[in-house]
Structure formats: structure tokens, C-alpha cells
UniProtKB/TrEMBL annotation:
Keywords, ordered alphabetically: Isomerase
The protein's name: Sugar phosphate isomerase/epimerase
Lineage: Archaea, Methanobacteriati, Methanobacteriota, Methanomada group, Methanobacteria
Top-level taxon: Archaea
GO molecular function: isomerase activity
Organism name: Methanothermobacter wolfeii
InterPro entries with a match to the protein in the record: IolE/XylAMocC-like, Xyl_isomerase-like_sf, Xyl_isomerase-like_TIM-brl
Pfam families reported for this sequence: AP_endonuc_2
Residue span, Xylose isomerase-like TIM barrel domain: 20-244
Record keyword Isomerase present: yes
Length: 247
């Protein structure tokens, strides 16, 4: 398994500064969150680090019942597919859509729209040679795919893989022995108290990461473990923690 780091904690820096820093601390991958301030990044091939891409999180809803919002959201995610293809990233992480307050009575149709949009994005990813891996959401009102069974069912229907966000799953009450199936194609890691998605450094909360890695190995996972924390101290301590427990 390889160690990746999200730009979540580094967005105030330029992409070249980020990549130099990640190379210095020995990370294997950088996961670019492709929205402001990294909506239009240019990456040269002068770095040894690999890439994954996270589609925009803010200001979009791929499950919107408003056709204009939905179509614009899908186009924005497809721009991230293009970025991933251009920089040689095999993985694009995408969030599912949302059920807004006034949309609760139409939740069934919103779920259908979510799958329709994901199908378009997955198909476009296949055309560009990029795996589009939907991510499970934390315990918040609104997001779809908070339940892991919903995520597994969706990726099976789409014939793709999933991004397992371990911290999100923990807020939903899942233990690490319940989090892993053969459909896991990418992994996000941060720690928490199993209540709030606080993006703490690994080892500073209550998640059993040693048990998690054992389950991933049992299922033959050989992908990237992407650290999603809040600052450079937490990045470095999380990488040190992972190095101690990766077999």
C-alpha cells in the first residue's frame, strides 16, 4: 500500500510547493482537491510523486432536481476527470449528491438522479482511462451514501470501485471489520471520536487503524491510503503512524 496526502491541509500553497513538500516527507501520492484554489492547476512531470484527484465538493449537487444545477455539477466533475487523465491519475474521487431541505419528499427521485449522474461520470471516466470511485459520506443530514450498504450497491450497479472514507464510516457507527469489501478501490484516512468528522491526525482518535489495515490486506488491497487532515503537523504525524503499522 502507498501513502498519499490530500491538498486539504495545504491549499494555501502553490502546487509546486505542495509537491516539493510531499516529496521531502516521503509521500507517494498527492490527492488534488480540484476546486478553488486548485481549480486550474498545472503539473509538470518533474516530480516523482503520483496523483489521485478529488472532484469538487463545494457548490455542486449531481443529484439536483434542478436540471441546470445538475448538468453544471456533472460538467464540473467531468472537468476533474479530464484533469486526472491529463496528469496520469488513475483515481477520481466523487461525492454523491444531496437531499435538500425542500427535497425530502422527493428523496426517491433524487436518489435516481444521483445514479444517473454517476453513470454519466463513470462512463466518461472509462472513455478517458480514469476510475471514478464514489465516496461514502459522514453522519450529516443531506448527503446520500452515508450507509455503506448504499455505497456498495451503487458501485456494484455502476461496475466501478468505491472510495472508503474510514472516518466518515466511523461517524455512522461502523467498526473497521464492517468497512471493507472487495469493492474498495481507494481509501481516505483521518481520525475522530466516532461522532464528529473532525479530520484529526491518525492515532489521536478512536479508530482502529491496525485492524483496518489487516482487513484491507485480507481483501488484497494494494492501493493508496490518502491522509486527509488539517495541517502539516498532522500530515507528518499521520505518515509516521502509518509507517509504523503498514506491514
Amino acid at each position: 500500500m502507498k501513502i498519499g496526502v490530500s491538498t486539504l491541509a495545504l491549499a494555501e500553497h502553490s502546487i509546486s510547493e505542495i509537491l516539493e513538500y510531499l516529496e521531502d516527507i516521503g509521500a507517494d501520492y498527492c490527492e488534488i482537491i480540484n476546486e478553488y484554489p486548485m481549480a486550474d492547476v498545472e503539473v509538470t512531470d518533474s516530480y516523482s510523486i503520483g496523483f489521485t484527484v478529488h472532484a469538487p465538493i463545494s457548490d455542486i449537487n449531481i443529484a439536483s432536481l434542478n436540471d441546470r444545477v445538475r448538468d453544471a455539477s456533472v460538467r464540473e466533475v467531468m472537468r476533474s476527470v479530464d484533469l486526472a487523465a491529463d496528469i496520469g491519475a488513475d483515481v477520481l474521487v466523487v461525492h454523491p449528491g444531496l437531499v435538500p431541505f425542500l427535497g425530502r419528499r422527493y428523496s426517491g427521485r433524487i436518489m435516481e438522479r444521483n445514479m444517473e449522474s454517476l453513470r454519466e461520470i463513470v462512463d466518461y471516466g472509462e472513455e478517458r482511462g480514469v476510475g471514478v470511485f464514489p465516496e461514502n459520506m459522514p453522519r450529516l443530514e443531506g448527503p446520500l451514501m452515508r450507509d455503506l450498504d448504499e455505497l456498495w450497491g451503487a458501485v456494484e450497479e455502476l461496475d466501478t470501485m468505491a472510495t472508503l472514507d474510514v472516518a466518515h464510516a466511523a461517524t455512522m457507527g461502523y467498526g473497521v471489520d464492517e468497512m471493507v469489501t472487495g469493492r474498495v478501490g481507494h481509501v481516505h484516512l483521518s481520525d475522530n471520536d466516532r461522532e464528529t468528522d473532525s479530520h484529526d491526525a491518525l492515532g489521536e482518535g478512536s479508530i482502529d487503524f491496525r485492524g483496518l489495515l489487516d482487513k484491507l490486506e485480507d481483501h488484497g488491497y494494494r492501493g493508496v491510503l490518502t491522509v486527509e487532515v488539517k495541517n502539516t503537523r498532522e500530515i507528518e504525524s499521520s505518515i509516521e503512524f502509518l509507517r509504523r503499522i503498514i506491514h
